[in-house]
Each structure stands twice: as C-alpha cells, then as structure tokens.
Amino acid sequence: MSTISALKRFASLQQPLPARVFVPYSQLQQQKILESHLISVLHECTTLNQLKQVHAHIYRKHLHQCCYLVTKFIRMLTKLHVPIHSYSRLVFQQVNNPNPFLWTALIRGYAVQGPFSESIRLYCCMRKQGIDPVSFTFSALFKACGAILDVNLGSQVHAQTILIGGFASDVFVGNTMINMYVKCGLLDCGRKVFDEMTERDVISWTELIVAYARNGDMKSAGDLFDGLPMKDMVAWTAMVNGFAQNAMPRKALEFFERMQDAGIATDEVTLAGVISACAQLGASKYTNWIRDIAENSIYRPANNVVVGSALIDMYSKCGNVEEAYKVFEAMKERNVFSYSSMIAGFAMHGCAHAAIELFFEMLKTEVKPNHVTFVGVLTACSHAGMVDQGRQLFATMEECYGVEPTSDHYACMADLLGRAGHLEEVLHLAETMPMGPHIGVWGALLGASQIHGNPDMAEIAASHLFELEPDSIGNYILLSNIYASAGRWGDVSRVRKMMREKKLKKNPGCSWVEVKKGIIQEFFAGDATHPKTSEIRKALEDLMERLKANGYQPNLGSVPYDVSEEEKRRILMTHSEKLALAYGLLNTDAGSTIKIMKNLRICEDCHIFMCAASKITERKIIVRDNMRFHHFTGGACSCGSVWYKKGHGRKGYAMGKAGGTGKMFAIVMLSSFTEAEQIAAIMICSHCWHSKLDRRTSTAGAPSSTVGRRSSSDV
Ligand SMILES: [Zn+2]
Ligand SMILES: [Zn+2]
C-alpha cells in the first residue's frame, strides 16, 4: 500500500479527537489502532516528504503529544539522515511531557549525527528533570562516547549505570559498553565488562573476538570463539578474517573449512577474507580452489562485485595478471574497487600502458576514480617511465577528477621523477608538499639517489629519514651502499658505526621457492643449512659456468663491503634468490615456471643473473621482491631493468624482444618509442593476456603497496 493511499484510509477511519478529560474505552481503543497503523506507515517511509505527510496526520489526529508515536517519528527522521537540529529537535520541543524513550530518541539522534557532546548535554537535562534513563539511553550514550573516543566520559556513563542500578544484566547495554571500550583502545576493560555480564548474546562474543583479531591477539580470539555456545556466520567470519588479516592464512583456511563442515552459510565478507588468505599463500592450488568455491556459491565473481574485486586482487598479488584480467572481463558490474584492483595489478606487473588504458576506459563509465585508483595509475606511469603523462595526471587529479592528492600520491610522484633522474624536482616536491615531511617521498629520493649514483642527494634524503624513522635499518644500509658504490669507504664505515651504536640488526635476506605439489622451500642469504646444500651449490656453479660462457659477469658493485674481488664473488653466489633458483631448477619439471619470492629488494647482480638464467634454461622465472614482480623471460625482465639502469639503451632491447617470447613485457619499456611503436606493442600485450600463458605463477603475499619505499637487498 502506498503511503498516500494508506493515509487516505486513516483519514476516513476516524474523525479528529476533541481534547477532553474523559475518553470512553471504545474511543481509546480506536486511538490505539490508529497509532499502530500510523507506526506501520512510518516504517515504510523512504523520503522526507512521506514523513512530512505522516507528521501532518499526527497533528490532525491530535496525536502530537503521544510520546510513543513521536519517538518512532524521530527515530525515522534519524534513519533518513534528516538534520536533527532542523526537525527532530522542533518536534521534540512540542511535546509537553516527554518520557524517557522520547528523550532517548533525541539523544540517540545526536549520537548518530553529532555533535556528540549534545547527547551528553541532553542526558544531563533529562536527569535534572528527574526522569530516569532506560537501557536504550545508555546504549546511545556509549555510542556517542565511542564516536568521540572519549573513554573518560564513557567511564562516567558506565558509573551512571551502576549508580542508577538495574542495568548490570542488560545485554544490550553491556554490548554497547564493550564496543565503547574497544573503540577507545581499552580492550582489557571491554573484556572485564564481558566477564561480568550475567547474560551474553552472540554479539557480545563477536564484538570481543573482532577486537582481539584487530589487535593481532588471535590466541584470545580463538579462546573466546571456542567458548561461544552458538557460533553463527558472523562469529565464524570474524575468525576467518582475523587470521587472514594477521598473516595466518593457513589458519584462516582451516577455520573456513571447519565452518563449511559445520554447515554454516558463507557470505561475501567471508569469501573476501578467504580469498585474501589464499592471496597470501600464493600457491596456485589455493587460488584455484577458492575461485571454484566462489564460482559455485551464490556470490559468483561475475555477479558479485565484492567477490570479483577480491579475486582480481588475489590473482594480481599471486603473479597471475592474466587470470585477474579474465575475472575482471567477466564481471557484469564493476565498481571503483574492481577497476582500482585491476589497474594496480597491471601496474604491479609492469603492464603500465594497460593500466593507463584501463584508467581512461574507466573514465568513460559512471564509476568515478578514487585515491586508490590514482595510486595505481601513477605507479604505472612510474614503472613505465612515463614522466609527462604522470605529471599531467598528478596536476589535474583534483581539478578534473575531484581527488585531492594525498601523501601516497606525492610518494608516487617522487618515485616517478626520481627514477627518471629528476632528483632536484623530487627534493623540491619533498620540501613543498602541503602535508609536510613524509617518509615515502624522502625514501623515493634515497632510492633514486642510488639508481643515479648521487651520494650528496642521498645524504639529504637519509638525514630526513633518520629523523622520521630512526630505527629503520633499511635507510642506513641503502646509504652505506650508495657510499660504497661511489668508493667512499670512510663514509661507509661511519654509517656502519651508527648502525652498531643504535644496535640495529639487519633483516636477513630470505627467499622462498614453490616446487612440485605446492611445497614451499625457504632460503636465507648465505644459507648452508639445507640438507641438499652441496647439490644446490653444484647446480649453481654449473649454471654460473654456462652463464659466463654466454657473457655474464658478476656485478661486484652489488657488494657494499670493502673486501677482495674474490670474496665479493663468493658473497654474490650465496644470495638467497640464487639458492632458491638453483633449488627450483633441481625440483621442478623442465619448462615449467619458477616462482620465487623475496623479503627484500632483488639486487642488481641477481637481476642480471635471473635475466641470463631465463634465457639459458628456457624457463620463465618470476621473482616477487618487496617492490614489485619481475617476470624474467628469454633474457629480459618485465621491469625493463629500470631500477638497475639509468634509463638508457632500453629501446633497442625492447624491440629485440617484441617478436619473441618476451613480447608480453615489451610494453614496459615504451617510454622512448614512437607512437606507432607504442600502439603495436600495446596490441601485442593485450593479445598476450588472452593467450594461454603458463598459469603457474608466483608467490605468497604481495609486494608492499607503499610506493616510493625502498629497502636493501641481500648484502
Ligand atoms: Zn642478489
Ligand atoms: Zn626486473
């Protein structure tokens, strides 16, 4: 029934009630019927206009003093986001004797819309008038305290519940109290409230489980979960997502499987959590497993934009950008997350032009780009060395697309300009950016100083970084490496001394390689503990001989120590990714892709080594370091080696590859191409996404999304 026709029916239902002292029972009964009808009409209202019509009827029927009805009316106004000051407040003021429920409706309105302090003020007024609160009053007050993160006020309200009494057993009050303490960061107080509750429901448990998971305390979350008598979907999902967010992907999968065995339904939130867990594991058996589950659920990625976007993100992070694009293409509806994940995926894998092309395609749709989208496109520009394109996008993003540049975007720009060698411009950017000094931007300058061998600029960047993040060892190592490359050994030992004084320990370089049956092996730099060490060493030496015969020379500049050349050669041979490669070659089938991931950045020597090895062994090698993916094929890398060269001589190299197996990645190196050459390469590239490339691509986890960050490689 439409609102209007419903109201018409009520109009005919009864004549206006004259105000009088005595109301006969029959009339009273009719009034009650009218009230309940009006309330059901109220609940169906979806616009302010409809509410106003109901309000008019309330007046015409002389019901504007009925607290019950007015309470419901104010709650509806709040629900429809009608500004509380301009309407609800006035309605409230018309009532001569508001009851606690009506007071609470107004207090709650302010707790939802703010100003939150008004909730507290109203509560004091109510108490001054001698009106006792009800449980809803406290839940509204706790909500307000949680919103302003004022635990002091929150504990005063808590004291009121004790002072007035009778609320200790109210589960609703208890739950909002837990929520308030948790929001204010006092998890222990939340737990205390929980422990003292005489009655709890599934919300009380879940509230705390989620809080523990956010705090990274999965042990306590698990203990609580075990004690929960009736576990519903929300509670299970809290556990699955908690493990996924705390980098415990195997546990997340285990809980998901238990959840399925218990016959609990899953929703898109659960699925997104499991997908993120699979992304962390990276092994293809998990990614395909969860894709099949999603495909067979009611949340199919093609129809569900949340699940679809999560899958795109997963495949991109696992090194399989072709599969990510397939998911993207099949999606019937796409939102800003789907586009942003796909753009970021392309950027991460060096398909910069594809990323930018997709961005412009997105602009033609209704979907508006957001801050994440711009991080993706600017990263793409950076990886492809498209300086002018990046500058233009950065300059117009606010004006043309309404996205205000954040520090992340400044970091992208610093990265882009720094790689291209515009170090002075990065310095200017860092000194003038509106949000003040920023780790990302200085970090990008430090990284760029390394690429372009500029120790003076590195000193400036490092001095800022030492202040901003005094305990981050990566900055010290990078600076000492830059001095080492310039042969300034005195400065190297000065930096090393600083590190010793600060007692900073270096993160050991560590690589993982996936071999048959999805088994993952771990190697540390200089690792001689593996049971097959001698076999691995032998394989590595054999490979080295073959590479040397083909012109490979160890890049001794990658070793930042003042040691003999022989020692430098020896150190380079023990880099963790080389050990992982040798193990991978021994333990995978001929012709299959080798997937390696690394906690630090791959060094220049290992990068040259992998390029050469991919050609000699005719294997595709994918290395995910903490910056990005490197796809090595036929002697070339998808990153165009931009991190390792000063941007020269890339053109001929790319052209040489465009016809061969490396054609998919020719696209990265297009910055120096003519327009016609670029278009040709884009076509080659887009063709490759649809071709059946080897799907068995890399790795667990994902490279750090923070652009402009850098870190040391194995030293
Ligand atoms: Zn290395
Ligand atoms: Zn590379």
From TrEMBL:
Residues 696-715 are annotated as: Disordered. Belongs to the PPR family. PCMP-H subfamily. It comes from the Eukaryota. Transmembrane segments: none annotated. PANTHER family: DYW DOMAIN-CONTAINING PROTEIN (PTHR47926:SF523), PENTATRICOPEPTIDE REPEAT-CONTAINING PROTEIN (PTHR47926). It holds the Pfam family E_motif. PPR repeats lie at residues 99-133, 170-204, 232-266, 304-334, 335-369. One of its GO terms (molecular function) is zinc ion binding. Residues 698-715 have a biased composition (Polar residues). Residues 551-643 form the DYW domain. One of its GO terms (biological process) is RNA modification. This is Pentatricopeptide repeat-containing protein. Keywords: Repeat. InterPro entries: DYW_dom, E2_motif, E_motif, PPR_At4g14850-like_plant, PPR_rpt, TPR-like_helical_dom_sf. It comes from Senna tora.
